[in-house]
Amino acid sequence: MSTDRLSMWLQWVFMVASNHTHMLESRNAFLVRQCPLFSIEYVSLQCFHLDCQLRVTAFVNMNMNVTNPSLVQSTFYGAQETAASLHHLSEHGQNTVLTIMAILGSNFPDLEYSPYLMHLVSFILSTTRSADHALSIAWGMTERSRKDEWYFPLSRFRYAVFLMTFLDMIRKKNARLLKKMEQLDINPTAFVRDFFDNFFLLHLNYHEALIVMDSFLLEGSKVLYRVGLAVLKEAEGEMLGSSSRDEFSQALHAYLSSHTVWHILKTGFSLYLARSMFYSAHKKNEKALRDVRDSSVDLGDVDPFYHPAIRPTSVILDTLAFDFIWAHLPPRFRIRDADRVYSATEDGYGLSRLLAKVAEVLSDRREHVERSTEMACIIVVTTMKGDVFGGFTTEPWHHYSSSKFFGTGESLLFALKPSPMIYTWHSDNPSTYMFCTTNSLGMGSSEKGYGLFLDESMQEGSTAGTDTFSSQPLASEANYEVANVELYELAP
Predict the structure, then answer these.
(1) Is 118 left (phi over 0), alpha (psi -120 to 50) or beta?
(2) Distance (Å, rounded) from C-alpha 274 to C-alpha 64?
(3) Summary mean pLDDT of the chain
(4) What pLDDT was estimated at residue 297?
(5) Is the omega angle on the peptide bond into residue 418 within 30 degrees of 0, that is, cis?
(6) Is 253 helix (H, G, I), strand (E, B) or coil?
C-alpha cells in the first residue's frame, strides 16, 4: 500500500475520533473503491467514544504477516477453507481466544450473549503481535459496544433486536426473497443467523472475511447489514428460481463462489442505509419484544465460553444440563467451577444437614477470604416422578426470620424436566428472591405459593407460579415427593 493511501486511512480514523462523528456514506464508499486489502496487525482501541481518545498504531501490509507463529497454524497461509477450525489458530491460539472471552465475560457483567464476538477476537488475534494486544483491542470494542452497540449487541434480547432489524430491511429491499423463503419453509431468522453468528465464514473464505473485518473496524456492525443485504440483492435472481431448500442454499453458494468480496462490498456501500434508519427500527423492535416479554426470534442454545469443572460428578445433572444452566447465569459466574456442598442421598435428608454443610464452607473460607459471606449457589431438585428443577442464588442459604426474604435480582429459577425453562427476575417484580427458616426454604412467591419450596425434612415440597420471576410451576405436579437434592457452590 502506498504511503498516501495509508495516510488517507489514518487521517480518516483520526478525523472520526476528533470530530466525534459517524462515518459518512460517500467517504466509506470511496475507501472501498480505492483501498486494496490491508490487514491491521495492531489497532489499539482505548475508550473509543465521544468523551474518549483513540490511539491507533497500524502496521499495514499487502500480505498476511504471522507475527506470532505459535498462535497460528501453518495452514493459515493461502487457506481457502471456512472456519472448520477456529480461524486456523493453533491449540495455543484457540485457548488464548477462550481466555480472552473469559476475561471479557468476567469484567463486563452485561456481556451476556454475543455470538460473533469470538470470531472478532479470533480475527484480531491472528493479525496482532500478542495476546495482550488482542485483549486490548477486544476490550476497547466491548467498551464502545456497551454504550451504543457500535460493534455488537451484548445480550440475547439485543441480539434478537439486531436480527429483527435486519429482517425489516430485507422486507424493504428484498421482499420477494422473504416470500420465497416462506414458500420453501425456510426460517428467515435461522437463515440470517448463519450470516452473523459466524461473521460470514460459512459463506466467504477466510481472507475475504478479513476484508469485511477491515471495513467492520471502521464502521461497526452496520457493515454486517451492508454485506448481508448486498449478498441477498446480488443472488436474488438465482435464489428466486429455486424449488427446494437445497437449491436455495446452492444458489447462494454459487453466487458467492463466482463473485469477489470487493464486488459484494461495492454493492453494499452503494445501498442507502442511514444510521437513523437503524435507530428507529431498533427502537420499534425493542418495544415489540418488551411488549410480549418473550422474544419470538429463536436464538437457539447459548454456547458457554467456559465449561466448568463439576466436582464431584452430579447424579442428577449431565453435562448438557449444566451447560443449559451455565448459559443463563450472570456472566461473571460462568467462569467459576462448581463444587458440590450437599447431596441428600449422601449427606442425609433434612434442612439442618444442608445448612450445616453451607456453614462448614463459610467457616473454612473465613480463614482465607475476606468476604466470607459470599457464596453463589445452584440448588437442584429431582422428584419421584422424574422432574428436575432448581434455582440459582448469589447469597448462601442460612436461617432468616420467617417473614424475611433476602438475595439479589440475579437469582433465577429453572426447570429441566419435563421441559427446559429459565425464569429471571425483572425490576418491576417483587423482590421475594429467597427465604430460609428453621423449617423450610424457598424461592419466589405469589398468592398461590412459592416457585420452589422444600420442607424441613427435605423429602416433600411444592411449586407454583410466581410473581417474582414471572414463572410457571417448575414440576408436573404442585406437590411432590423429593428423590434427591444437590447444592453446588460456584467457587470464587
Answers:
(1) alpha
(2) 33
(3) 76
(4) 46
(5) yes
(6) helix
Class of the domain covering 3-292: mainly alpha
pLDDT value for 114: 84
Please state, as a whole number, how many other Cβ atoms lie within 10 Å of the Cβ of residue 243. Answer: 9
Measure the CA–CA gap between 337 and 335, rounded to whole angstroms. 7
Compute φ and ψ for 74, nearest 5 degrees.
-65, -25
For residue 158, what are the CA distances in angstroms to 100, 113, 192?
22, 9, 15
**Beta pairing partners, 443:** 434, 452
Q: What are phi and psi of 478, to 5 degrees?
A: -65, -40
Cell representation of residue 32:
472501498
The predicted structure's pLDDT at residue 380 = 98
Tell me the sheet residues that pair with 412.
392, 424
Asked if 49 and 17 touch (Cβ cutoff 8 Å), the reply is: no
Find the helix or strand (DSSP H, E) in which 269 lies: helix 261-270
Taking only the tens place, the pLDDT of each residue in 381-411 is 999 999 999 999 999 998 876 568 999 999 9
> CA dihedral defined by 147, 149, 151, 157, rounded to 10 degrees?
140
| HEC-encoded secondary structure of 436-448 | ECCCEEEEEEECC
22: DSSP letter: P
How far apart CA 232 and CA 229 sit, in angstroms, is: 5
Asked if the model's pLDDT at residue 324 lies above 80, the reply is yes
CA 1, CA 73: separation in Å to the nearest integer? 26
pLDDT at 488 over 80: yes
- Between helix 275-292 and helix 156-173 the angle, nearest 10°, is 120
Please count the residues of the chain: 492
Residues 6+ apart with CB under 8 A from 10: 56, 58
Listed range (83-92, 147-156, 174-183) with the worst mean pLDDT? 83-92
Place of cell 425489516: 168
Query: For the segment 88-114, what is each residue's pLDDT rounded down to a tens digit?
Result: 777 788 888 888 888 887 778 778 788
Q: Which residue has the cell 444437590?
A: 486
What is the arithmetic mean of pLDDT over 311-327?
A: 86
Residues of the chain with CATH 1.10.472.80: 3-292
pLDDT, mean of residues 357-368: 81
For 293, left (φ over 0), alpha (ψ -120 to 50), or beta? left
pLDDT of residue 39 exceeding 60: no
Signed CA dihedral, 85, 90, 92, 96: sign only: negative
Phi, psi dihedrals of residue 342, rounded to the nearest 5°: -150, 140
Closest CA to 126 of 44, 57, 40: 40
What three-state secondary structure class fits 152? coil
What pLDDT sits at residue 187? 84
The answer to whether 441 and 435 have CB atoms below 8 angstroms apart is yes
